[in-house]
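User: For my dataset I need records formatted as: sequence, then structure tokens, nothing else. Please produce one.
Assistant:
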Amino acid sequence: MIITLLFLGVPSNEEASVTWNETTKLTWSDFKASPDLKSGAVAVTASGITFGYSVKTSDERIVDFSTTVQAHFYPNKSWYVKEKGNAYILAHEQLHFDITELYARKFRAQITKLTVNQNVKEQMKRLHATINEAVNETQKRYDEQTKHSMNREMQKQWEVTIQNELSKYEDFKSL
């Protein structure tokens, strides 16, 4: 059994994180927390989306805005049971991180559709909340449908689906 925790929002300054990168995959050495042997899980991936924005004003009116959206993996909250960790389980955990990146891309895509107006901060906050709910739901559905990686056929289907979705949002990938 593999359980995923999602930490959505802005990490504290002292919290270590790895930003998603298409050329760098997770390794077991990235999982630094002590395993919870009572949980029944083989591994836990802690990942989430950080979001920040700034607005430019003129005469107290918003005239422009900028945002940052990143998918992060949190090594100090992620763990695995060394005796049970293998390449297949690691690939399952990597897909959790890839799902987080997919939703960061979807978030960036939605932000590009926003127009500057006096409610843009509230619109961004609502989008952030909606994305957080969606990524949470998808992560849960992924673990349920793959039976935490035990259903190998479904695991493969998810890998193909997420790769296809990432490709659709290629223009919005993390740099």
